[in-house]
């Protein structure tokens, strides 16, 4: 088992001390080019890497690019492709204690060739471990798997699952079949065997071999598409609970990333209501559906809905925010959220849980609290295993209760001539490519 280690990293000074650690649960690293994968892939696949969109064809026009131009390290390189630049631009800027790398090739699960998809995923995993993790102790990694072949995916999980800085398995939320079905059990078995979270992240909806983006077919515009992306997270959560996955794998935890939050209370209420009248169809469920969700599922803040703040707080309490919600920036995407934008919206009793404690418990991280006059530690819950107890320590950080923002925080969202969202604390630079 991994010995307890305390990792300290130099941080950029800000105007006041950080009251608690900050864990970013969705940080996208990418390639400088697909040629970066060649050292990790059989030569037979190399010609496909030179094709446009080497992972899959894109089926809908997206006028707003996915990543922010100001997050590019320069020299024409993609945003999120240089770990040193990302350290300065995000980790140091916001004093992020840990950032979980979620990658940029989730759409491999939409490819028609399962062997090629698995080879790309495996190569990207090795590239991440070799290129990103050595640059800063704050990076934590995900194992990308292609969902077309769950048995091959399970072998990939076993190959890398014992790495001390790998904390989860990640795959696209889009799939040809619901994730509650038994063909996906090898993925869950491998995740549980390696003490890893399973993360379902938005990506690949309506692309390649996947079903249409919406339940009624293909939308006309990316705006229309973007509004209903959460239906994929809803559908997968509904399937996983109803099919009894958490009864079969009682220690399994699933993180739903980049799917929003407001739909969660609605789905819990609807499932609980129908369970009362239809539970005979699911005799394997021993609890209300909402109880499985609260116990086994976590949800990230980005892209957080933006109603009046009082309504936002009410919605978060309905979904047991103190246990189920984790902070995420979605860096370097065009609609990413800065810590000041999200956490300033929350009262203090929620803020600490969302900023670090919920994620620390889920991923088994040992958090050194940075409250003034308190040098103690806080690691609640059974998730804080000996294998993964890593101290998250920092010096100074952002003031999450301050209204002072940097010029970058005040940047306009300028994805097109008719978009001008000003006066927001959201850290969005000039638009890059829309997911």
Structure description:
With 435 residues, the protein is of the alpha/beta class. It has a single domain, classed as Alpha-Beta Barrel (TIM Barrel), CATH 3.20.20.140. Helices cover 31% and strands 11% of the residues. The protein contains 14 helices and 12 strands. An 8-stranded parallel sheet has the order 2-3-4-5-6-7-8-9, with helices on both faces. A 4-stranded mixed sheet has the order 1-12-10-11, with helices on one face. Strand 5 (166-172), helix 5 and strand 6 form a beta-alpha-beta unit. The longest helix has 18 residues, at 114-131.
List the helices and strands and how they pair.
Elements: E1 5-7, E2 23-27, H1 46-49, H2 83-92, E3 98-101, H3 114-131, E4 139-144, H4 150-160, E5 166-172, H5 185-193, E6 197-201, H6 222-227, H7 230-242, H8 245-248, E7 254-257, H9 263-278, H10 289-296, E8 297-300, H11 309-318, H12 321-324, E9 325-326, H13 339-343, H14 348-363, E10 366-368, E11 377-378, E12 390-392
Parallel strand pairs: 1-12, 2-3, 3-4, 4-5, 5-6, 6-7, 7-8, 8-9, 10-12
Antiparallel strand pairs: 10-11
Task: Provide tags for this entry.
435 residues; eight-stranded parallel β-sheet; TIM Barrel; alpha/beta; 12 strands
Summarize the structure.
With about 425 residues, the protein is an alpha/beta fold. It is built from 14 helices and twelve strands.
Through-space gap between termini:
39 Å
Strands in their spatial order, largest beta sheet: 2-3-4-5-6-7-8-9
The CATH architecture comes to Alpha-Beta Barrel
CATH fold node name: TIM Barrel
Shape: globular
CATH class identity: Alpha Beta
Helix percentage range:
25-40%
């Amino acid at each position: 088992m991994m010995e307890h280690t305390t990792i300290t990293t130099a941080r950029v000074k800000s105007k006041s001390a950080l009251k608690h650690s900050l864990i970013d649960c969705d940080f996208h690293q990418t390639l400088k080019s697909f040629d970066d994968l060649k050292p990790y892939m059989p030569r037979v696949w190399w010609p496909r890497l030179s094709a446009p969109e080497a992972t899959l064809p894109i089926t809908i026009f997206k006028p707003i690019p996915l990543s922010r131009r100001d997050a590019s390290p320069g020299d024409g390189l993609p945003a999120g492709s240089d770990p040193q630049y990302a350290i300065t631009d995000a980790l140091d800027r916001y004093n992020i204690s840990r950032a979980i790398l979620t990658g940029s090739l989730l759409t491999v699960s939409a490819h028609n060739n399962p062997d090629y998809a698995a080879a790309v995923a495996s190569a990207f995993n090795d590239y991440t471990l070799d290129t990103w993790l050595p640059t800063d102790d704050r990076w934590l990694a995900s194992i990308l798997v292609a969902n077309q072949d769950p048995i091959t995916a399970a072998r990939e999980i076993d190959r890398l699952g014992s790495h001390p800085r790998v904390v989860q398995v990640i795959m696209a939320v889009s799939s040809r079949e619901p994730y509650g079905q038994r063909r996906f059990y090898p993925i869950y078995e491998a995740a549980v065997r390696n003490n890893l979270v399973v993360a379902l992240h938005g990506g690949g909806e309506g692309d390649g071999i996947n079903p249409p983006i919406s339940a009624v077919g293909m939308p006309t515009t990316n705006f229309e598409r973007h509004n209903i992306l959460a239906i994929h997270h809803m559908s997968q959560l509904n399937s996983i609970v109803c099919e009894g996955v958490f009864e079969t794998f009682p220690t399994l935890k699933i993180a739903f990333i980049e799917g929003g939050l407001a739909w969660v209370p609605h789905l819990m209420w609807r499932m609980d209501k129908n369970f009362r009248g239809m539970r005979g169809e699911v005799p394997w469920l021993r609890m209300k559906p909402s109880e499985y969700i609260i116990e086994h599922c976590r949800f990230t803040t980005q892209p957080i809905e933006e109603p009046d703040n009082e309504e936002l707080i009410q919605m978060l309490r309905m979904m047991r925010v103190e246990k189920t919600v984790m902070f995420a920036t979605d860096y370097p995407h065009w609609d990413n959220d800065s810590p000041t934008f999200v956490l300033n919206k929350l009262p203090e009793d929620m803020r600490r849980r969302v900023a670090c404690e919920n994620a620390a418990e889920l991923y088994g991280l040992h958090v050194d609290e940075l409250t003034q006059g308190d040098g103690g530690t806080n690691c609640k819950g059974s998730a804080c295993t000996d294998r993964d107890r890593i101290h998250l320590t920092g010096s100074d950080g952002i003031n999450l209760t301050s209204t002072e923002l940097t010029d970058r925080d005040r940047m306009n969202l300028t994805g097109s001539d008719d978009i001008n969202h000003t006066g927001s604390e959201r850290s969005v630079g000039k638009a890059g490519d829309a997911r």
